[in-house]
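Reviewers of the previous submission asked for a worked example of the structure-prediction workflow described in the proposal, so we include one complete record here. The input consisted solely of the amino acid sequence. No template or homolog information was supplied to the procedure at any stage.
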Amino acid sequence: MVTRSTLDPIEEARARVRLRYQRARKVHPGIPQIGLAAERLGRKVGAKKLPAVQVLQRRWREIVGEKLYPFCRPEKITGGKDGRVLTLRVIPQAAPIVQHQVETIRQRVSVSAGGDIIAIKIVQGALNTSEPTKPRRKAPPLTAAQRRQLEDSVSRIENSALRAAIVALGAAVLTADDSPTSPVLDAGPIK
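From that input alone, the workflow returned the following structure tokens.
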């Protein structure tokens, strides 16, 4: 059953226009969210206690893991009203890989940095490798017995230039560093 309004259609249209632009307000706005107020207060007080970017740089390998560590480094942390933004320096070839892992990195860094890292900004460029490198150990020279054994093993080679090259190679192999970066070959007698 359809009933007609007893109001004038013009007055009804005016009333709709007024309602469109004038909304009712709550009588009592209510209390502010306690969690939001606590977070704001905690951010102001806790900002001085949060770790600096140097702490992140020292712990970066354990934060991001061995797969992403060679490709990115934390550069700086900037603050704002809502939270802090971490700037990562990433080598250009690995930027898409790191971009896909940004949310995981943000969560891990946020746990390490106090919980208010809201975003990660990626800057492409060369990494500053400030890790201390171990000084190379000077290789011990060949002993006379080792030199004699090496020359005896190549004595049957007739070409003197080839023999000298093989002796030099054998000496280099025998005096090579045992570190994983320079593999040591098994230098047995040449037959």
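The radius of gyration is 36 Å. We consider this example representative of the routine output the project will generate in years two and three.
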